[in-house]
Amino acid sequence: MRNKTTYACQSCGHQTARWMGRCPGCGEWNSLVEETTVVQQKPARGIAGGGPVPVTEITTAEEERYSTGLAELNRVLGGGLVSGSLVLVGGDPGIGKSTLLLQAASAMAGSAGKVLYVSGEESVRQIKMRAERTGALHPELLLMAETDMAVVEKVIKETAPLAVILDSIQTVYHPDVASAPGSVSQVRECTGLLMRLAKGKGIPVFVVGHVTKEGTLAGPRVLEHMVDTVLYFEGDRHQTYRILRTVKNRFGSTNELGIFEMRGAGLAEVTNPSELFLNQREQPVAGSTVVPSLEGTRPLLVEIQALVCPSGFGAPRRMTSGVDYNRVALIMAVLERRVGLRLSAHEAYVSAVGGVKLDEPAADLAIALAVASSFKETPVQDRLVLAGEVGLTGEIRTVAGMDKRLQEAAKLGFKRCIGPPVDKQAAALGIIEYIGVQSLQEAVEAAIGR
Ligand code: TYD
Ligand code: MG
């Protein structure tokens, strides 16, 4: 073994042999930090090895999946936890990551057997108090407060648990690496070790990672590349709803959503989420529309609100929350040029209700109509949903899964939908009045009138 000094970028993980003011990898200034690593003579083997084999001769069993005891968590994992997988749960501090994993750990301990919960953030007494509060007490749930990964490795090998939870990757360190916990080298080394333990012993491992304000995992992207599955836990800390989103999954689809409510006694699963993101109103109001969005396999009705008002001097302010800023800018430009709404001298604020994030283009039409409705100070038709992508020429483009969207809308008492011109699924369904429109102009006329 010998020591090696390198400079590693704390934001992207790029390594250089000498110090530089700016990272050549990601362009970040002042992000290179000196790190000393012990170079092992023989690199540890991961999942590789054995030479080439004809693909037809590899035997596979259906991958083994465990239930985590939380249906919403199983859903985002792609139908349960795959044995030997390494799952990263990211999110802002205080959002509920520890609570979620403690509840899952206890449920797994109840159904499958020994689960090891390692925390570098809290003492075992603190965790026990949380477990009491959330009803997560189970004799097969083992707690350990530890930050030394060499000890963690030893304990995992000795106790042979069915699953391991490590809270959080930024607080643990490997004694062979000289740099501080949370640095790129530490995170890489510790994650690599967990990876080998997970793959080698078939033990699924959950790792918690904190997110910085910019919305990336604190420190290195390296982490996201190494793990099998990345889940983000998000939501407004001041509201009770929490959304668990799949960002990467080697064992299932991404875009899946799991929805929880933070209660006094921990996280409760929300199985019928559409009602959450709608404001119940007697009278329709200007600037509000509803989109039947389809996140992963599940439809979700979300209210979009817009406020458009004349601006004073200078460039008018535009603000969004829960919807993409640039998308809103584009839609407003289309409204201006193709529908003739004079929006350029107006401030605009657009948000998705309830802390949900919408990033599918199917929400375009609802965003456009919320803006147009606020601008004209006229509500859209009552009991109406809108789904469609808006093109630059103002055309309305087809969206996927219209049948699922309409079924959900009908279930929640909506009477009509405005969407792309030909939608065979929509016509065949007949459960809701469907109005196909060619252009944004037509959509505005149909929903608000001239
Ligand atoms: P926590 O799981 O500690 O968040 P993270 O691990 O992501 O930092 O959850 C923190 C918040 O959740 C805390 O502000 C209190 C709240 N909470 C409840 O409302 N009810 C509960 O039963 C628990 C355990 C926490
Ligand atoms: Mg925590």
From TrEMBL:
Keywords per UniProt: ATP-binding, DNA damage, DNA repair, DNA-binding, Hydrolase, Metal-binding, Nucleotide-binding, Stress response, Zinc, Zinc-finger
For the motif RadA KNRFG motif, give the residue ranges: 248-252
Which residue stretches belong to region Lon-protease-like?
A: 347-450
Indicate the segments forming the RecA family profile domain, all copies. Answer: 62-211
Q: Name one GO molecular function term.
A: hydrolase activity
* Example GO biological process: recombinational repair
Q: Which residues bind ATP?
A: G91, D92, P93, G94, I95, G96, K97, S98
Kindly indicate whether the keyword Cytoplasm belongs to this entry. no
Q: What would be one Pfam family of this protein?
A: ChlI
Q: Kindly give the InterPro entries that the UniProt entry links to this protein.
A: AAA+_ATPase, DNA_repair_RadA, P-loop_NTPase, RecA_ATP-bd, Ribosomal_Su5_D2-typ_SF, Ribsml_uS5_D2-typ_fold_subgr, Rubredoxin_2
Top-rank taxon: Bacteria
Q: Which GO cellular component terms are attached?
A: cytosol
Q: Cite the PANTHER family for this sequence.
A: DNA REPAIR PROTEIN RADA, DNA REPAIR PROTEIN RADA-LIKE PROTEIN
Q: Which comment does the entry carry about domains?
A: The middle region has homology to RecA with ATPase motifs including the RadA KNRFG motif, while the C-terminus is homologous to Lon protease.
- Function statement: Plays a role in repairing double-strand DNA breaks, probably involving stabilizing or processing branched DNA or blocked replication forks. DNA-dependent ATPase involved in processing of recombination intermediates, plays a role in repairing DNA breaks. Stimulates the branch migration of RecA-mediated strand transfer reactions, allowing the 3' invading strand to extend heteroduplex DNA faster. Binds ssDNA in the presence of ADP but not other nucleotides, has ATPase activity that is stimulated by ssDNA and various branched DNA structures, but inhibited by SSB. Does not have RecA's homology-searching function.
> What does the similarity note say?
Belongs to the RecA family. RadA subfamily.
Protein name in the entry:
DNA repair protein RadA
Which organism's genome codes for this protein? Desulforamulus profundi
